[in-house]
Amino acid sequence: MVASLVSRGLDKVRALVGLDEVPAGKVLDDIRRQLRECAEGLGGEVSARTRAARLAETYLQLDDAGRHAFLKIIALEFGPDPARIDTAHARYQSAVGTPAQWDAEAELRAAMRSRRIRILTQFNAIPQGVKFLVDMRVDLLRYLRDDPELQALDRELQARLSAWFDIGFLELERITWKSPAALLEKLVEYEAVHEIRSWQDLKNRLDSDRRCYAFFHPRMPLEPLIFVEVALQEGLAGSVQPLLDESAPLQDAGRANTAIFYSISNTQVGLRGVSFGNFLLKRVIEDLKRDLPGLRTFATLSPMPAFRSWAALHADEVSAAFDDKDRKRLAGAGIREVPSPLFQQLLDSPATWQDPALAELLRVPLTRLAARYLVHARKAGMPFDPVARFHLGNGARVERLNWLGDTSEKGILQSWGMMVNYLYDPDAIENHVETFARAGRVARSAHVGRLAKTA
Amino acid sequence: MVASLVSRGLDKVRALVGLDEVPAGKVLDDIRRQLRECAEGLGGEVSARTRAARLAETYLQLDDAGRHAFLKIIALEFGPDPARIDTAHARYQSAVGTPAQWDAEAELRAAMRSRRIRILTQFNAIPQGVKFLVDMRVDLLRYLRDDPELQALDRELQARLSAWFDIGFLELERITWKSPAALLEKLVEYEAVHEIRSWQDLKNRLDSDRRCYAFFHPRMPLEPLIFVEVALQEGLAGSVQPLLDESAPLQDAGRANTAIFYSISNTQVGLRGVSFGNFLLKRVIEDLKRDLPGLRTFATLSPMPAFRSWAALHADEVSAAFDDKDRKRLAGAGIREVPSPLFQQLLDSPATWQDPALAELLRVPLTRLAARYLVHARKAGMPFDPVARFHLGNGARVERLNWLGDTSEKGILQSWGMMVNYLYDPDAIENHVETFARAGRVARSAHVGRLAKTA
Amino acid sequence: MVASLVSRGLDKVRALVGLDEVPAGKVLDDIRRQLRECAEGLGGEVSARTRAARLAETYLQLDDAGRHAFLKIIALEFGPDPARIDTAHARYQSAVGTPAQWDAEAELRAAMRSRRIRILTQFNAIPQGVKFLVDMRVDLLRYLRDDPELQALDRELQARLSAWFDIGFLELERITWKSPAALLEKLVEYEAVHEIRSWQDLKNRLDSDRRCYAFFHPRMPLEPLIFVEVALQEGLAGSVQPLLDESAPLQDAGRANTAIFYSISNTQVGLRGVSFGNFLLKRVIEDLKRDLPGLRTFATLSPMPAFRSWAALHADEVSAAFDDKDRKRLAGAGIREVPSPLFQQLLDSPATWQDPALAELLRVPLTRLAARYLVHARKAGMPFDPVARFHLGNGARVERLNWLGDTSEKGILQSWGMMVNYLYDPDAIENHVETFARAGRVARSAHVGRLAKTA
Amino acid sequence: MVASLVSRGLDKVRALVGLDEVPAGKVLDDIRRQLRECAEGLGGEVSARTRAARLAETYLQLDDAGRHAFLKIIALEFGPDPARIDTAHARYQSAVGTPAQWDAEAELRAAMRSRRIRILTQFNAIPQGVKFLVDMRVDLLRYLRDDPELQALDRELQARLSAWFDIGFLELERITWKSPAALLEKLVEYEAVHEIRSWQDLKNRLDSDRRCYAFFHPRMPLEPLIFVEVALQEGLAGSVQPLLDESAPLQDAGRANTAIFYSISNTQVGLRGVSFGNFLLKRVIEDLKRDLPGLRTFATLSPMPAFRSWAALHADEVSAAFDDKDRKRLAGAGIREVPSPLFQQLLDSPATWQDPALAELLRVPLTRLAARYLVHARKAGMPFDPVARFHLGNGARVERLNWLGDTSEKGILQSWGMMVNYLYDPDAIENHVETFARAGRVARSAHVGRLAKTA
Fold first, then answer.
1. Which chain D residue shows the shortest CA-CA distance from C433?
2. Residues of B263-294 as b/e, b for ≥16 C-beta within 10 angstroms?
3. Cross-chain Cβ contact A180/C182 below 8 Å
4. Contact assessment for residue B16 and residue B29, using Cβ atoms and an 8 Å cutoff
5. Does A7 participate in catalysis according to the annotation?
6. In what helix (H) or strand (E) does residue A373 lie, and over which residues does it extend?
7. Per-residue model confidence as pLDDT tens digits over B365-407
8. Residues D263, D247: Cα–Cα separation, whole Å
9. Residue B44: enclosing H or E segment and its boundaries?
């Protein structure tokens, strides 16, 4: 079964392993043999690492099917020995409650230790080895969707990456226009919220009235793990377009009282489940305060990526957001029912947002709807909106809604242009985190609270 | 029981935890409560880390009994849940051989995950957190001697430290007289083979005809993990005293053909069981070859720390090392039996080594004895000599024995001054490692082989 | 006269010096007063520097006329005292040949010391002060063209800059894609030979089969002073277009035997007359040899910027470059006379270079003409071609001519696409420099020598 | 005459220049020939530098007489041409007042340009070239004492060093226990005020309640040019011994309100006449204020190195410092006249300072005498005390006198243990500098002012 997965990449691998013109099965046997040598560590750790490095190179040459087979061999053939686990578990179970429990636990743990992780760890020996493993997990996560037998391997790899990417090992660094070009081009590649269109756009985002911070791992020096873009200004920002406008006048950072986090991007798919994003804003706020003592307010300007798709599923909520006054005004514009095909057409047409009168007509009810969405909408007990989940879990509160805050095509498509400021009040963060964790309560400003109230 | 361990350090802790004038039990209850909060992560990861940092500070203020109690609470009260393990194991056992095995394995692994490691990892958040954990394990290893209930905790901590100190994360750095004084004083403190007597002595060991390398962890910047001192010269070194002599003339490193590793010291007791020493010499040899292409020979000048104590236990071997000619000569010096009290007196008296005639009398038989000791003496299937175990396991061979190579008091006490060169031949290392690992064969030069032959 | 120069920038300056609504003359008086305070150093060196920093800021606010006036005040009013020079010179003249000569010389030198340089030096105190002075000289050189009274000031400034930019203070640094973006954008700005069209183009020039080196001054950290772009390949490069082609396949630098310097750009107009370019190639060659021992040949691929304009002035030379065979072929293409309007049209038409048959027709005679131009054409005793002057003065020899080596519009315009390789043979450089300096002899390969021979 | 200076170092030099067994004169001729080649720059700048490097090596091998001869050749044989100066001066003199003046001035300046500086500058090319020239000037200054013919050379070298060591090029760096040992040992070597006795003493001076700053030149990376040692504490320090006491308890730098500069040392004799010390304290105060906002007071604890030797010359002043009460008390101790041999014996005997009663007897009159010395004593119009000259010229004021502030042997010998605090009040510095420069007025606190008043 494994053999049948290998295909296009085979020739390269044949050449690499020195087996020209052999069938796929033989190639896999050769890989299997090498994996076994890695796992056993014969010839000493030093040469085991050397061998692992060669295997890692082989992996990079394989095509997708080949890689899947490679990982599958590791997953299925290098796991722990069920018989040994059984014995150790029996001893443990009988030792529980006696002084022998703790040694028996250590034994059971030893029996659980698999050779998979030993192999993977040795791949670390190649230059850029950590990045190699993070990227290998990107593959693994993809295969895992259709192949649950990779589960145990993935969990072990995730646990090891969690240990390696412990927050204590990460470095917060400021990124500026003086940073290496090889790093800056990664920002362009990874920016997930508001696309960076050119080097000029990027330079604008690193100007003296901006800040950009990222976490780095000491062994992935030019690879930001997560980064945030900050604008320094007076007062909250309500709209993202001026922030992205390269021709907008430069602000005086020294006089700013507000830091706006207007874009946060995770970069490494292979680190899914390894958390460090929570620490980013905390550390950035500390650094900003030290650097610019005039800053008083720390807030985001955030998208609401699931607002429109949620509304599509909740016609009743949409309807309820329109009170009598709103309906009267809508009727004046020829729309008598909410929702209705005509109403839907109004909402979704770009023309609406460009017509000040029409836009104004929708402002109040949609803002009300957005407030209710953020405060009350839930999925599996958590806020429906993924960005809300992140910031509320970090201790922020919903501060202000901004009608037409993002008028880009993407902004209209996600949330009819609605944006939201989450406020990070250093004195309230801990409290918010706790009440959110315990009771699921969404912290909000008085104004948003009023908007979110339903009849 | 735990409570009774706390004593002297208590007042400090009381002050720290804000509980003046309370009994030890209460203090421990408070610590226990805080540990629980850390383990549960209530209030978000960020504040959990902050709380952990406070706990780490508390730990540092505790006296030995208090620390023991602290670790014991973690060991016994934050382990995995035996019932949950039992259930998960039952499911796993029945899934073995079916497609559900891999998910069940992941589940069992999850059930084994203890909150101990979660707590310890959070201590990482304090500045110098990694060093804190390494030092905490020094304590733990000490308590473990008499308290086997700490076993499970120690194994978990070791596993985590092994992940963190993976060779892929370590940096090989050259240490010179331009290195920070704060780092250099660590060399003085940690040097375990040939004591560094003064800054002048240290400067001599970092001169242009020397090299010094160490492994560092990115989060322990001024803490060498293991370091090696190298002398560059023409031909093998047979005696260590000239190398330590500050007034010896400077050699021209550019003309050297031989690198002598004359001192290797591990520095962190808390990293016991975490291996990286094997990689040090390999990397150092690579760096030296790049830097000084004239180097042809890489060898140690090593002590034989257990030679004399081994000989004390093997009178027959000592006796057999003296052939008829040797005995005749000894008889000429008034000694008729080997071993015998008179003979023993001769061996152990410093006067012997200072008298060229007497020393010469012992040279051949003791060299023979040393060769047999290195090649044949075993403990648990491994070479009896700990330094031999290290170098032979790394792929070196026993190259040459040096009579009176170390005439310091310590040298005489350990091995009657005998020293040995282990040779690292880059082309033979892998082969040596393998035959040593498989068959326990000690690689040796032809000359040492002849000496080691017994009748 | 000075006053009349000030105009547009005045208002800003008025505001700066705190003199609103005052006539230009008053503003200048205020500047003059401040310059005097700088020159006298009253209030201590520290506050003099502070004052100078304010003056430097003032300068930056001035418009062109204002700056000219500013510099003129320094030039004319802060020179040495002619009377004091007269006295010191008289004493010196009478002391010549006596033991008092050396003290008298020092006195005369002291009398010559002007307060101009004292003022300028103090401008150094502002951040980026060195760059400020280099840029100020750009202004000065511009005004000097029409205002010879600035001569003494310019010479003093040049002498000071020469001291500061002594080669011993410059650092050779390799520039890569990991260099700061703020530095890389300077390359785009300063590249003077083959324009850099985009960040992608730039990245291509910094790829693994390229090298880029620049000299830097420790006080101008992101400002390259001069830089060279190098391609690593097998054999001489004859055409520049493949080197600039972003889609060309990457070469393996490790297998290269030839380094081609294909672009050298000076960047700081304000350092005219301060030489360090000579050292650049020498140091780059040293660094390349250390880094890539496989390199054997070091050569340029250079433009001939004045070839076509020289030919326009020397119809006889052009004519002589065509021998009977060449003329016969030309006649076949309908051109009976050289030079002639028809011939000229043939030469200058882009269509010619795109037609292989026509291009081939001109290849041999134009290559011959180019060889004669490089070897024999002179201006003020030196090679007519400025690039030839630079490389021949540095010890290179004319190695090979490359017909249609640069088919860009600029290349055709300057030299009908002809390019030349100058070869740097480390063993011959010193000898070439000397014979070039003494006898003006142009070193050339045997082949170029034959081509350059005239009947 | 020059030849006769060369002696011991000759053999080395002979070997170096390739002239075995030749007389001194020949060696010098060879040096002279090489200097000429350097000066003429034949063979291009690059090889001129190479040649200069060889000459610099030669210089280092010469003994004192040889070096004197070497410098003398440069001084006397590579100066400007008197005839050319004469011509240029005549032209200049006649051009004064005409538009031709400025070009003529530039010409005269060109005629003055000597080849000496060209030679010296080229020495800069060797590694550590700047340090080489600074050290060469140490030699030069020594020879200059008895050989005024070196004057012109010294002035030129000083002018060039002044340009190179312009304050704008120097870097202020904090020195800590993490600084390179190779740098720290320079502090031990150069400390000129309170000798550093050991690495332990040094470590104490770099502890967390101390600061140490130095100026560095970018081309002399491990060579401090001037450094200052600072203690952070509450209130003024009156005695230096507690500051130097390694066993004194550590202060909390965060709570300090006062920074005491207790030692300032110039390190490079070869930079005599090149000033930068004035800037050191200003920059250090700026850095301290930024780093520790709690600091309010910046003051020195300074020796009075010439107090006792001045008193020895001014018996009348000493006498006048004792009023009737003081005399009565002295009489009680058996001393009836001031000054007198008995009195002198009392003053100079170490026993006096160790006897509290005797010491107290002298406290008031000697403090009075010290105040008068600092405020009124002059040498060539400047304060008699060299340390006072430095700090008063920098804008400090005499704040407080400290009886028995330095009870070391040196302290007693210089000033009977008296020390002084000079206060740097950032708001008053500029004003003090100016009144000191204009009117020679010594700024002082009200208390010191009263003490200094004479009848």
1. D43
2. bbbbbbebbeebebbbbbbbbbbeebeeebee
3. no
4. no
5. no
6. helix A356-376
7. 999 999 999 999 999 889 999 999 999 988 999 999 999 999 9
8. 19
9. helix B44-61
- Domains of chain A (ranges plus CATH)? 2-79+114-164 (1.20.140.90), 168-298 (3.40.630.180), 307-452 (3.40.630.150)
Interface test with A, best of C174, C175, C178, C223 (most A CBs within 10 A): C178
Does A touch B (3+ CB pairs < 8 Å)?
yes
CA D389 from centroid of its chain's CA atoms: 12
φ/ψ of residue B349, rounded to 5: -80, 130
**Residue C81 backbone dihedrals phi, psi, to 5 degrees:** -90, 115
List of E strands, C275-406: 297-300, 378-379, 382-383, 397-402
With contact defined as 3+ CB pairs under 8 Å, the chains touching B are A, D
Instruction: Lay out the sheet containing D210-216: strands in order across.
Output: D171-174, D210-216, D226-233, D258-266, D297-300, D419-423, D397-402
* Terminal Cα distance for chain B, rounded: 61
**Alpha-carbon distance A54 to A68, whole Å?**
18
What residues of D are in contact with residue B184 (Cβ under 8 Å)? 181
Q: What are phi and psi of C310, to 5 degrees?
A: -65, -45
- What is Dmax (Cα atoms) for chain A? 85
Cβ contact, residue pair B103, A152, below 8 Å: yes
- Summarize the confidence of residues C381-404 as an average pLDDT: 94
- Say if the Cβ atoms of C93 and D82 lie within 8 Å: yes
In this complex, the chains that touch A, judged by 3 or more CB pairs closer than 8 A, are: B, C
Confidence of residue B434 (pLDDT cuts 50, 70, 90): confident
Residue positions counted in chain D: 455
* Chain D residues near residue B183 by CB distance under 8 angstroms: 178
In this complex, the residue of D105, D150, D169 whose CB is nearest that of residue C219 is D169
Over range A407-433, report the average pLDDT: 92
Q: What is the pLDDT of residue C3?
A: 45
Chain A contact residues (CB < 8 Å to C): 176-184, 199, 203, 222
Grouping H, G, I as helix, E, B as strand and the rest as coil, residue A275 is coil
The predicted model scores a pTM of 0.89
pLDDT in tens, D111-158: 999 999 989 988 887 788 899 999 999 999 999 999 999 999 999 999
Q: What is the pLDDT of residues A273-313, one digit of tens each?
A: 997 877 899 899 999 999 999 999 999 999 999 999 999 99
- Show Cβ contacts of residue D174 under 8 Å, excluding neighbours closer than 6 positions: D211, D212, D213, D287
Given a contact cutoff of 8 angstroms between Cβ atoms, the answer to whether A153 and A75 are in contact is: yes
What are the chain B neighbours of D186 within 8 Å (beta carbons)? Answer: none
C-alpha distances out from residue B429 to B301, B377, B397, C156, Å: 18, 22, 9, 67
Q: Tell me the residue type at B80.
A: P
Q: Which entry of C302, C314, C319, C408 is annotated as an active-site residue?
A: C302
* Confidence bin at B418 (pLDDT 50/70/90): very high
| Residues whose CB is less than 8 angstroms from the CB of residue D83 and which lie 6 or more positions away in sequence, other chains included | none
SS (H, E, C) B93-137: HHHCCCCCHHHHHHHHHHHHCCHHHHHHHHHCCCCCHHHHHHHHH
CA distance D112 to D109: 5
Cβ separation of C180 and A182 shorter than 8 Å? no
**Could you tell me the two tokens for D353?**
């300072």
The mean of the pLDDT values for chain C is 89
- A177 → closest Cβ in C178, C179, C181: C181
Interface test with A, best of C128, C173, C177 (most A CBs within 10 A): C177
- Nearest to A249, CA basis, from A238, A233, A263: A233
Q: Which amino acid is at D70?
A: F
Strand partners, C231: C210, C260
